Amino acid sequence: MTHLPALRFLCAAAGGVLIGWTFAFAYWPLLWICISLFLLTSTTFLLGLATKKSVWENLTALFTALLSVAAMALYANFRIYFVPENAVLAHASGAPVVLCGTVETPPAIKGNRAQWTLAAEKIVRFSRGAASQPFTADVVSAETLAVSGKVRVRLSAASALQLNLNIADRVWLTGTLALPNAAENRGEFDYRAFLAQKEIYAVMKCFGEWNIEPAGKRPEDFYERKVTKPLYTYISRTITALIPKGDEQSFIKGLLLGDRSGISDEVALAFQKTGTTHVLAISGLHIVLLVMILSGMLMRLKTSRAGKWLAFVLTSVILITYSSLTGNSPPIFRAVIMAEIFLLAEVIERKTEPINTLAFAAIVMLVLHPSDLFDGSFLLTFGAVAALILFQSPLQSLVSLPKTNIFFRTLQAVWNSLAVTIAASIGAAPFISYYFGSLAMLGTLANVPIVLLTNWTVYAMTPALLLYAVSPSLAEYYSICAFWMIRLSIALAKWFSEVPFANVPLRITPLVMLIFYSAIAFAFSIRTRYAAALCAVMLFLINILIWTDVWQLWIAPQTPKQIVVASRVGRGTAVFVKTGSENLLIDAGTSRSQQSRITAQLQLFEASPLTAAAAWRSRDSIIANISAPVRMFAADSVLKLKTLIVYRPTPYLLKVCSKTRSIIFAARLNDVQQTQFFRADVLVLRLRKFTIAERIKLQAWLNYAKPRCCIAEIDGFMKTTERHFFYRFAATEPRLALAAQSGQLTVPLE
Fold it and tell me: Which long-range contacts link 223-229 to residues 24+ away (Cβ below 8 Å)?
């Protein structure tokens, strides 16, 4: 790596971002570390100049590397955790507000729901006595404040939405402002962390289009007013005029403009199962195609140095314009910067390694947005591009056919395309498995024809868009070709998705990713047969470790043998009790659609297969749908297992006992008594009201039974004053946990 300075600095920058992200709000310690390292670096540098001894030069190099890591850690810590005083996050309390801001992304509309990103400018807060509708007569006072930050707006309505919102529109919104939902259970999607990576920390929920009012246009510059917006309108109208309405039209709009709102869920699911979802969204692939088209069109300009610079400027302007057309989404913005850096390296004719140029692009991205290091799309993009740089040529060189006839040339072209897909899959597959928990087994085969067809669609739509303003009939010939190629790609995606084992559930750990990439790099860096055989054995052993329980027992975190886990599933709860040999599920939420979430949680905590399932508050029909050999329904009073006994004395009570531990489920606080029967290690309690009397009763029971934990569920109809009274009580009682706020709760019983 001595000849790859950008790659070395990227390792230091990534390490600094990890440190800055790990130690939250550590500005001052990191600042003092940076100052100390700067003084040490300066001292050793001056001593090296004075004495000419190599020891000082080596120390200077060491302290410089440490200073780079510390400086990036300080910068990342500030960017990730610093919240300005006027941040909209400070007002995300769930109360009704009126918010004014500028639309940053085009609304994604699905039936009666829509969402987009808003750059907040002003907020109107109402007094505590305000009603749920801010403009009613009982509003005591209102306060208008200037705010900053991004907000994810989620609009719902009783019928299909017909929004006419565009980027740069300023609007007033009436609704509730709250924090995004965090992951309720272990291993599930964390919506709050997902939005935080995009620097969005609050969600605005509105109902009905009447809660949106225009607030005038944001001042637009000349380029945006005269170029970007008219061009977007022209492309959108041209696609609508040339392509019949349906999935094909929506697909092409997503391909060229990033608008995927019209694509049906069936088509989106088919592409997801086959690992070809990337073609549905604007990404680095589209920027590469655009650069290739522009490179071919501007080839004659590149005969002189001045012509190369002119081609670079024209290409840059077009790329920046295209990025603006698609809303400057992070994947496109990253791809444009990457393309600009590669094009600039080509223009200045400086000999450099492509991987070093890629590393420099990654450094620029991390400087602009340090949190990109934890963004799945960022890692997928750079993993795929790095794999293309490193592995594409070696893979293509494995097959070398004679160019004597068209048959061999066609086979060679097919293999070259397949090699590109295999190389990109090598770089992206581990990240896909890590972030999405699945692996598209047919992804490589499906990518070849689908990516090829979508590429040809872009090539066909380019002249169609250019010719439509002059000759619509001539443009129609190209659009027909694009239409049928997209239809064929959709049909192929559906066909591949229906093949058995097209998508296999598989979630790997970071250590597995490290071993995988190390083995692949080793495979492509060796040339001898002995080393190739050794690498094949390594890959085979890694495959065994991944697919067997031996690897899971070695690397996965071990859970206690006896635990109680309360998981949030929609509006309900699922509690499973795990002993050394048996697994019992109590309740399964309020809907059958939550069964997949429950199954995933059982597997994560090694509580599968189930020994039995019992109903407490869930309907019998839901418990009957659970895959368990023994079930206890609402009418049953006793369930006996080898290590557990479940007893139901009343319809509202359930007690689970092992040889040494017990859990009580109570739907009413009045049923919980200070008797020996109600002594338990865990109490799961449903609260319908909470007054002073309930507080005294619950405190007395906690002091009497001395449980390890009391998990409380609040009824949705509890009064607001009683709810806040309970929150204040829970803050003073460490044994009391609120299921809705605490998310998943795990109580070891060993």
Answer: 224/168, 224/324, 227/321, 228/321, 228/324, 228/325, 229/166, 229/168
The pair of three-digit structure tokens given for residue 570, joined into one six-digit string = 């929609």
Of 169, 203, 173, 205, give the one whose Cα is nearest residue 98: 173
State whether the Cα torsion 89-165-272-460 is positive or negative: negative
CA-angle at 236, arms to 234 and 241, nearest 5°: 90
Residue at token pair 């439509």:
468
Q: What is the model's pLDDT at position 555? A: 43
- Read off the pLDDT of residues 417-432 as tens digits, 9 standing for 90 and up: 777 777 777 777 777 7
Q: What is the pLDDT of residues 108-160, one digit of tens each?
A: 777 788 888 898 988 888 765 544 454 444 555 778 888 888 999 999 887 77
Rg value, the chain, Cα: 30
DSSP H helices, 398-528, are: 406-436, 443-468, 472-497, 510-525
10 Å CB burial of residue 395 (0-12, 13-18, 19+) is buried
Nearest-angstrom CA–CA distance, 94 and 91: 8
In 512-544, which positions are buried (b, 16+ CB within 10 angstroms) versus exposed (e)? bbebbbeebeebbeeeeeeeeeebeeebeebee
Are 127 and 140 in contact by the 8 Å Cβ rule? The answer is yes
3-state SS assignment for residue 160? coil
State residue 219's pLDDT score. Answer: 64
Q: What is the mean pLDDT of residues 542-554?
A: 46
Q: What does residue 638 show for φ and ψ, rounded to 5 degrees?
A: -140, 140
- Per the structure block, which two tokens stand in for 696? 């005294």
Number of residues that this document lists for the chain: 750
Whose structure tokens read 């048996």? Answer: 582
Distance, CA of 717 to CA of 229 (rounded, Å): 48
Least confident of 98-107, 354-363, 556-565: 556-565
Cβ 304 vs Cβ 276: under 8 Å: no
Query: Please, which residues bridge with residue 687 across strands?
Result: 714
- Dihedral, CA atoms, 264, 267, 269, 275, nearest 10 degrees? -140
Query: Read out DSSP for 311-331?
Result: HHHHHHHHHHHHHHHTT--HH
Instruction: Specify whether the CB–CB gap between 562 and 750 falls below 8 A.
Output: yes
- Phi, psi at residue 78, to the nearest 5°? -70, -45
Q: State both tokens at 484.
A: 């049928």
Taking a C-beta distance cutoff of 8 angstroms, is the pair 699, 733 a contact?
yes
Got the DSSP string for 84-109? -TTBGGGG-SS-EEEEEEEE-S--EE
